[in-house]
Amino acid sequence: YKLENKLSDNGLLKANVHVTAFDETNRPVHRYENINIYTQSVFYGIKYFNNYVSTRQPLSVNIIALDANEKLLNGPNALVTVVRKEWQSVIQESYGGKYRYVSNKVEQVVKQDNIQISGESSKFTFTPSINGEYEIRVSKPGSSSYVSNSFYAYGSGDADFTSFEVNNEGNVDI
């Protein structure tokens, strides 16, 4: 059985197969099988780090690559993207002439690099300059699928008017 192209680079798929055959006496014989389907040859990983970091301080992130047998790989390329999630808040008039805040999250790419993974020693360094929510994404170059880790950066005096969402009561949630 061949998988569709849209399923490629989706990680590990688990399939449950159920087959029934009938023997010579017309008695059913059932067989169940769980199958792992690997849709990619390289699996990327980001080592856990603190989700709250300081602005203007370099953040060093360890990145690894494994094969389907969970063996460490040397040499595969990875696209590392840092996205800052900005909030665009506006006041909108609703039905009945009432006004309310509406916040929309917009993703802005702040840094993007192609790196070569070499064992456990691959590091990616990024220095957040503005308060807010960030996400590091690691993917195979050219693929739309990725692994990610989100974090918040905060530093005194580094706030931007798009750093946080405004709720409907006019408060800023941090």
Helix and strand layout, with pairings?
Layout: E1 12-22, E2 28-38, E3 43-46, E4 52-54, E5 59-66, E6 74-93, E7 99-118, E8 123-126, E9 132-139, E10 147-154
Parallel strand pairs: 4-10
Antiparallel strand pairs: 1-2, 3-5, 5-8, 6-7, 6-9, 9-10
Summarize the structure.
The chain has 174 residues and is mainly β. The protein is built from no helices and 10 strands.
Describe this entry's structure for a reader.
The protein is flat, with a radius of gyration of 23 Å. The chain is mostly beta strands. It has strands spanning 12-22, 28-38, 43-46, 52-54, 59-66, 74-93, 99-118, 123-126, 132-139, 147-154. The N and C termini lie far apart (50 Å). The chain is built from no helices and ten strands. It is 0% helix and 56% strand. The protein has a five-stranded mixed β-sheet with strand order 4-10-9-6-7, with no helix packed on it.
| Helix proportion | under 10%
Low-confidence stretches: none
Would you report the number of β strands? 10
Strand content: over 45%
Which features does this protein show?
single chain; flat; five-stranded mixed sheet; 174 residues; 10 strands; mainly beta
